[in-house]
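User: Quick sanity check before I run a bigger batch. Here is a single chain. Can you write out its predicted 3D structure?
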Amino acid sequence: MRATLQIVSMMLFLQSPLPAFGQAERVPESPKESAVSKEFAENVKTYIALQKKLESELPGLKSANDAIEIAAHKRELSARIIEARKSARQGELFTPAVTEQFREIIRRTFLEPGGQSVRRTVTEGDAPKPIPIKVNAVYPANSPVQTTPPTLLNRLPPLPMDLAYRIVGRSLVLLDNKTSLIVDFIPDAVP
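Assistant: Done. Predicted structure follows.
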């Protein structure tokens, strides 16, 4: 009987999902955090809908291998997004409530055990040249793109493939992967 219980316990343990190496397990959100995450998800959904609508108005690419055509398509999409969001300001997607929650997630990630590894990931390599961070600015092609540590990514709300979190200096940037536009940012997000 005891051996059977041990085998069943081991099987249940092996079937339970474990976080990937180097990633923390997601902590269940409180109702307030859940509401803020939902607000952010809706803001992201609205931006992606605009991006998709504007892209659908462009002529399709004749070749997925023509770098000149792809660059022209990217520039035209960027211009249309900038025009459609010409009054966009910092804090539209990262509203005050979202900003507060994100800063707390980032702060906890940097302060807990393993936080030094996260900090090293952010600061390793050559110091990038400072770039101006503003909504609708194009992230410079010649500037390195700092990846966001997996431990932190696992704690932030997931994004669709067209968007990415990036750390630039101490700011958390929401970057449009199709156009390299800065969609929004949180200044002084990284402690």
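Residues 33-59+66-186 form one domain.

User: Great, the batch can go ahead then.
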